[in-house]
Inverse folding.
C-alpha cells in the first residue's frame, strides 16, 4: 500500500503557515520597537514570535492556537484517509489555486497592517479581513480530494457499523470546515484590534 490519499487537505496547516509567514513579514517591515523585542529579531525567530504574540496579542494567539488543536480539524481529519494512494496530485488544481489565493490575501493583509502603524481606526483594514475570510472559505470548500471519500467509504461497504461511524466523522469534519471561516474572520479581526495599541 502506498501513502494514504487524504479525504481532506490540511487547511489547518495552510492557515497557520500563511499566518506565521505574514506575521514574520510584518515584523520585518515594521520599524518600531515592539514591546521588549526588535522587529528584525521577531521576523526571523519563530519561537520568539510565538512567545511575543502570547504575551502581547493573547486573544489572537488563542484563536490561532485553536486552529492548531481543534480535534475535528486536526486529529479527526487526519485519520480520514483511504488506505491506498490512487495516483495524481492529492492537492488538486482547484485546491492548489485556492490555497495560493488565500496565502496572497494573508500576505496582503499583513503588508497593509505594517503600513498602518499610526492609524487609530481598525475599520481601515476590514476589507482586507473580508478578503482573507472569503479566500479561506473558497479554500475550505475545495479541501476535499475528489473521490477520496467514496473510496474510503467503499472500504467499509461490508461493515455497516464502521461505515456509519465513518460517515458521522466525515460529517463532523465537513461541518467544522464550514464553521472555520467564522473563526478565521475572528482571528484576523483580533490581530487588527490587538495590533492598534502596540
Amino acid at each position: 500500500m502506498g501513502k494514504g490519499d487524504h479525504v481532506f487537505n490540511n487547511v489547518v496547516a495552510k492557515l497557520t503557515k500563511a499566518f506565521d509567514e505574514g506575521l514574520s513579514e510584518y515584523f520585518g517591515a515594521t520599524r518600531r520597537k515592539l514591546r521588549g523585542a526588535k522587529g528584525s529579531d521577531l521576523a526571523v525567530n519563530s519561537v520568539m514570535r510565538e512567545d511575543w504574540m502570547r504575551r502581547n496579542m493573547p486573544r489572537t494567539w488563542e484563536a490561532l492556537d485553536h486552529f492548531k488543536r481543534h480535534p475535528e480539524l486536526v486529529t479527526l481529519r487526519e485519520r480520514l484517509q483511504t488506505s491506498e494512494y490512487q495516483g495524481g496530485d492529492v492537492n488538486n488544481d482547484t485546491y492548489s489555486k485556492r490555497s495560493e489565493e488565500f496565502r496572497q490575501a494573508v500576505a496582503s493583509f499583513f503588508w497593509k497592517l505594517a503600513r498602518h502603524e499610526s492609524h487609530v481606526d481598525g475599520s481601515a483594514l476590514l476589507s482586507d479581513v473580508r478578503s482573507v475570510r472569503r479566500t479561506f472559505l473558497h479554500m475550505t470548500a475545495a479541501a476535499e480530494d475528489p473521490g477520496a471519500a467514496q473510496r474510503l467509504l467503499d472500504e467499509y461497504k461490508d461493515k455497516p457499523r464502521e461505515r456509519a461511524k465513518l460517515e458521522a466523522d466525515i460529517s463532523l469534519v465537513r461541518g467544522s470546515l464550514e464553521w472555520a471561516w467564522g473563526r478565521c474572520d475572528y482571528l484576523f479581526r483580533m490581530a487588527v484590534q490587538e495590533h492598534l495599541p502596540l
